[in-house]
Amino acid sequence: MIARLPRLLTALPALLALTTPVHADEVMAAVAANFTNPAQEIAALFTAETGHEVTLSFGPSGQFYTQITQGAPFEVFLSADAARPAKAIDEGFGVPGSAFTYARGKLVLWSADPHTVTGPEALQAAPEHVAIADPSSAPYGAAAMEVLAALGLNDALQDKIITGKSIAQAYQFTASGNAPLGFVAMSQVAGDTSGSSWVVPGDLYSPIKQDAVLLTPGANDPAAQAFLDFLKTEAATAIIVKYGYETAE
Model's pTM, two decimal places? Predict the structure, then answer.
């Protein structure tokens, strides 16, 4: 019995590995505000399937990029554009080869009033205010400005624009009635039947190609990579499509 003891002690770590639960990690993710609702659903499903927790922070992509360059501990960045993830890689904040398109966004002119919006004529009727996201930091805000320019309404509406720091705040301005009209993401009003909306034709603004990237703090975190991989699964893409996005071709 004593002679067998060293062999038992040697085998003990392997036996413990078989009975110890897989360690669950936490993923820190910076997520563009337009993707709030689908990200919450996807993260919950990811946690249920893997045990890994995802801490989601929502806001404008430009603001997140500034935080990333200043050392914010985000491991994953789901941007509202493709430019910032590419820039993150170029400037050493992202892992080369990790960027991919997880969604293509759609811009909507929306009102909480069910009778206000039937098309672009709602803008031409000189509304009191129009809410948009900050075009300098939020791609959906930049797209909204492109639409106004394409419709020849920049000058007419210049003094009537209310700027939110993110697309989430632009939606809040409109939902509260502080602005009778607002340019929002389709994901924010998908399935809503209480208001009125016009899905802006895609030829009036640059494509909103939304890319994700693995950031350097998550380079050695299998959970962070697993979350990005999960975004490409059928279960995740079904949620993305449900909220009005197109998926990557």
Answer: 0.83
